[in-house]
């Protein structure tokens, strides 16, 4: 299976993705605060994970950045 998401999965999600043996993960934006793949604990590089999915990121970043900002702006107002 492949997983598509707008934001980089957190550390707990990265572990669940590994345990589920999802082949590939595609995400649009990095999560600099609580990401689990390329930011934060970088679990995907951990020797403790037995299965390491391939991951791809940076697709249409500007579009999704605006989308996320507008979503949370509406939530706060």
How would you characterize the overall build of this protein?
With 77 residues, this protein is an alpha/beta fold. The protein is 34% helix and 21% strand. It has helices at residues 11-20, 61-76; strands at 2-7, 24-29, 54-57. The protein has a three-stranded parallel beta sheet. The protein is elongated and about 45 Å long.
| Estimated share of beta-strand residues | 15-25%
Question: What is the CATH superfamily classification?
Answer: Cytidine Deaminase, domain 2
CATH topology name, in short, is Cytidine Deaminase, domain 2
For the largest beta-sheet, the strand count, sense and barrel status come to: 3 strands, parallel
Task: Count the DSSP helices.
Answer: 2
Helix content: 25-40%
- Regions with pLDDT < 50 over 5+ consecutive residues? none
Compute the gyration radius: what is it?
13 Å
Morphology call: elongated
Distance between the termini: 38 Å
- Report the top-level CATH class: Alpha Beta
Number of strands: 3
Task: Give structural attributes.
single chain, 77 residues, alpha/beta, Cytidine Deaminase, domain 2, three-stranded parallel beta sheet, 2 helices, 21% strand, elongated
Topology of this protein?
Layout: E1 2-7, H1 11-20, E2 24-29, E3 54-57, H2 61-76
Parallel strand pairs: 1-2, 2-3
């Amino acid at each position: 299976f492949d997983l598509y998401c707008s934001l980089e999965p957190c550390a707990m999600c990265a572990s669940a993705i590994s345990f589920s043996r999802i082949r590939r993960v595609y995400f649009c934006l990095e999560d600099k605060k609580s990401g689990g793949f390329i930011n934060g604990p970088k679990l995907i590089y951990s020797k403790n994970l037995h299965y390491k999915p391939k991951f791809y990121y940076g697709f249409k970043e500007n579009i999704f950045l605006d989308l996320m900002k507008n979503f949370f702006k509406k939530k706060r107002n």
